[in-house]
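Troubleshooting: if your tokenizer reports a length mismatch, compare your output against this known-good record of 181 residues.
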Amino acid sequence: MTSGATSPWELTVPGSTLLHIRQILGDEVDSATVTRMLYDTGFATGESVFADFAASTNADPTTFGHDRFWTDLGQFLSAHGWGNFSHERIHPGLGMVRTEQWGESGPAAETSEPSCSFTSGMFSRVFTRIAGSPIAVLEVSCRSCGDHDCSFIFGSEQAVGRLKGLLLENDSLDATLDLLS
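Known-good structure output:
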């Protein structure tokens, strides 16, 4: 790196490192604290991810159309070892990212609750940068819990907060989404 350069250094570690960190922290503090710590770390890291994503496109991602944004972000994250994902709009004001193979999750983790907290925080920061206003992210299924995929719902803080409250009262995501109508 040349003198005066402002680029941060980058370190590549396997995704399983995040699972290991979660497990070690879980041995020391309660699950809610671990989730908050990893989410906050992911959110802080999301700023660098956004900057690297923008640099990889040689453009400002906030100016991308819907299709270009999702295609380019998917290619960027896949190239950096996170995995492939799909995106869909699931309700007015709410979207979902789904992946059957994600860097932060793994069936061997055998957790009882969704555990991709770092990713949720990272997505929150990246999506907030794109939207220009706060975007909340809630993981609703996780391969580490034995689910088929990891699914992240995102939207305004109010919409995701309402969804989260309703999910605590209902077993089905589809039934909960119907209640939002």
